[in-house]
Amino acid sequence: MNIQVKQVNRFFLLATAPFLGFLLTLWISSHSLDWNTGNTLFESQEDTTIVEKTRSISAGLSQAEETAHYTVSTIKKTANLYTQTTKAMNDIVKTTKEQAARPETIYNKRIVSRLGVPFQTFQSDRIRLELYKLNSGTYQGYAMKVKLKDASAMKMVLGNDSLGGSETTLHAVNRYGAIAGINAGGFADAGGSRYPLSTTVLNGNYLTGFEPSFKDLAFVGLSKSGKLIGGKFYSQQQLDQLQPMFGATFVPVLLKNGIRQGIPDKWKTSPYRAPRTVIGNYKDDQLLIVVVDGYNENGASGATLEELQNKLINLGVKDAYNLDGGGSSSLIFGGKVINHPSDKALRPVPTHFLFFK
């Protein structure tokens, strides 16, 4: 609005400049007249000259007055036209933005209609989080829908920021001041330390080098542009093309482009049911995280991977990847543990996906 006012004021100055110059010239001319007040009698020629100059000045002032009225009228009309044109352009821009955002709004409403009503939400200029409850009848859990407005609002961190270190997701969330967090990739214990499985990327760098996919392991993470990426990669060049910013490894891939992926036989039965942590995305790049509860890792509670595939498809998810589960499954939101860990306490793990205000 200030820019518009400055533009109008600049226009007024330019429009009135000729008129002001004209008045200044008349004023100077009037002061240059030689009024001889010392004589009581004036020569007739001088009287005639003075009268003519006076008439000329009077005529000039009348003309200037008419010019001023015309100029002011023109300025008002031009200013009104400028205001109307600016308003019309602003209305067009506003309408265009609303129409451009309409498909996204409609799609998001479709997603939400399948999830239900969120029981917790958080929104800032960088991120929007919505927390939902899931109850399929055979298992219970939670879904967190994430809209990354800024790619830097999601990060992966190491347990205690060290290779081989581990900590609970709650501890990592509190330590980094994050708004939410989940456990990430799988791990292997060695020498009293807990190491991430296979290919792990942190801040755009390979933590322990690239390792081709084997035994159905799959990489999952976020690209530098803030998009979920994942799958099996048999060369570093293949993964580098997706520009990974961070990511971890586990098994298996659940969905690709909305199509169920084959689940390895081992993971169909060992365990059959379990607490689970899954991350996926929608076609508009919103993320969906599902954390399923279970009272132990013996295979009698929680969800099967096939059940999660079906659920994710019903929710409209495009791509989905299974993260570490069982006692590792963790969902933190607003500084609180949302899920019910099967170990009755959170398990320290080496990698965490965190979400920031």
UniProtKB/TrEMBL annotation:
Residues 176-356 form the Phosphodiester glycosidase domain. The chain crosses the membrane at residues 12-30. The keyword Transmembrane helix applies. The keyword Transmembrane applies. It comes from Paenibacillus physcomitrellae. Keywords: Membrane, Transmembrane, Transmembrane helix. This is Phosphodiester glycosidase domain-containing protein.
